[in-house]
Specification:
The complex is a heterodimer of chains A (82) and B (374).
Chain A: H1 3-17, H2 32-36, H3 40-54, H4 69-81
Chain B: E1 10-16, E2 23-24, E3 29-35, E4 38-43, E5 48-53, E6 60-62, E7 68-72, H1 113-121, H2 139-146, H3 155-172, E8 175-183, H4 185-196, H5 206-218, E9 226-229, E10 232-235, E11 241-243, E12 245-246, E13 252-253, E14 256-257, H6 265-280, E15 284-285, H7 286-290, E16 294-298, E17 317-321, E18 325-331, E19 334-348, H8 354-369
Parallel strand pairs in B: 4-15, 11-16, 16-17
Antiparallel strand pairs in B: 1-3, 1-6, 2-5, 3-4, 5-7, 8-19, 9-10, 11-14, 12-13, 17-19, 18-19
The chains are: A mainly alpha (82), B alpha+beta (374).
């Protein structure tokens, strides 16, 4: 998966959870949960969906590497490459 | 039409999920109604056969009015329905040419709550609308059909419902408030340890542990668990814990996790996931809104240190959890960095006093120090 594909995937999964937030309006380097106004349950839903799409489970100890939209893309790209 | 709280006077029928002639069993979802609190699924409470509809889609029906006639198993004759109360006419004018097609029973539609509400207001049959494959029907789709601008957002009706319930609470319930700092280092470590070897689908959240700790502590402190009714306080044996869940469109609801005291952590977590998913999708059951015997409100993801909740009548207590933070903490004569959360209790002075409240909170704290026992 290319980074662009990862970004599209992340965007579409976030849209399912936070349809009222436009990715164009967010700060890609700011706190992901705050930018999309998502709580711990939403985040778990996101991680579950992404893991399923990528065929690779995201361990809880890696959550910190998904702190912002940009960081999450980098992390997921790395995960998809393994 | 069930009552979902003292502030509810009527609901609008938006969807039938069973057709006349269908067999129904206790617990089946038979219809969907729209209330100030969103779309609510109506359950059947006995086994039988659906004989006939007594209300039409789009009707606004007062609380207590029969919606359908169900004959019990073995009944030969249909009991006479209670005198039907004329439906309250919708405030909005009917469109010039109403779109109306009979609903085939059973089909479930993907539709946003706002779209469902607008369709009901205009008596538009939802089965006649074709959404693009795999997509839900949105407000704009319905608005295009009625050819008039979308009405004011659902938020204002929700705000009215919250205002009514909270005003009643502050008018009638003599609140008292307590606060305690709780070390949740052990509880967080426990959750992290459990989750380490689990796939995302089976992971726990701290919230489930908090629910279990509260429900367990309630066994010894029944005066915080139940309903205050006209005749006074009625304690509940089961702990139906209302979970305050925010809605993205604004407002919040607090439906129940049933029988939390007798469920395992994994079952509670599964229940919590299911409840949040359905609330976010705008679908929960009537019973879930009227059943809670105590409420937990957590703003743990929102950065505030503490919150003091307003009791939701007829309940008599609400617990608030703030954001867990690393704090200096004295333990065994040493200063250590521990994970601390502020826990607050708002409780009803007609039923309990601060001393019992303090003991109740201490009992919750103790449960959280030994999360493995929960």
């Amino acid at each position: 998966m290319t980074k662009a594909q990862i970004e599209t995937l992340l965007q579409s999964e976030l849209y399912k959870i936070a349809p009222d937030i436009d990715v164009a309006d967010i700060d890609r380097d700011a706190d992901l949960r705050e930018e999309f106004d998502i709580d711990s349950m939403d985040f778990l839903t996101l991680v579950t969906a992404l893991g399923k799409e990528l065929g690779s489970d995201i361990p809880e100890e890696d959550y910190a590497q998904m702190g912002s939209f940009a960081a999450a893309i980098d992390y997921l790209a790395g995960l998809a490459a393994t | 039409m069930p009552s979902l709280g003292a502030d509810m006077e009527a609901g609008t029928l938006v969807e039938w999920l069973k057709a006349p002639g269908d067999a129904v069993a206790r617990g089946d979802i038979i219809a969907v109604i729209e209330t100030q609190k969103g779309a609510i699924e109506i359950e059947v409470f006995e086994d039988g056969v659906l004989k006939e509809y007594l209300a039409r889609i789009g009707d606004t029906v007062p609380v207590g009015t029969p919606l359908a006639m169900i004959s019990g198993a073995g009944d030969d004759t249909v009991p006479a329905p209670a005198t039907p109360v004329p439906p309250v006419p919708p405030k909005t004018p009917k469109p010039a040419a109403p779109v109306r097609v009979e609903t085939p029973g059973g089909a479930r539609l993907k539709i946003t709550p706002a779209a469902r509400r607008l369709a009901a207001q205009h008596k538009i049959d939802l089965s006649a609308i074709k959404a693009p494959a795999g997509q839900e029907i949105r407000l704009a789709d319905i608005a295009a059909l009625v050819k008039r601008p979308a009405p004011e957002s659902a938020g204002s009706a929700m705000r009215d419902a919250i205002a009514a319930a909270m005003s009643r609470s502050k008018r009638e319930i003599p609140h008292y408030y307590l606060s305690q700092s709780v070390d949740i280092t052990a509880a967080e470590s426990f959750v992290a340890e459990v989750n380490k070897d689990r796939p995302a689908t089976e992971r726990l959240l701290l919230g489930a542990v908090l629910v279990k700790a509260v429900a367990t502590a309630l066994r010894k402190y029944p005066e915080f668990n139940g309903h205050y009714e006209d005749a006074g306080f009625v304690p509940s044996k089961a702990a139906h814990v209302g979970m305050a869940i925010n809605l993205r469109g604004g407002g919040l609801v607090a439906p129940a996790l049933h029988d939390a005291e007798s469920k395992s952590l994994d079952d509670l977590m599964a229940g919590l996931r299911d409840l949040v998913a359905r609330v976010r999708a705008g679908r929960f059951r009537a019973r879930e809104l009227s059943d809670p015997t105590i409420t937990i409100s957590s703003l743990g993801d929102r950065g505030v240190d503490q919150l003091y909740g307003v009791i939701y009548p007829p309940q008599v207590a609400i617990l608030g959890f703030g954001t867990p933070r690393d704090r200096p903490w004295v333990q065994d004569g040493q200063i250590a960095v521990r994970r601390i959360v502020s826990m607050t209790l708002s409780a009803d002075h007609r039923v309990s006093d601060g001393l019992r409240g303090a003991k109740f909170m201490t009992a919750i704290d103790r449960q959280l120090q030994n999360p493995g026992d929960l």
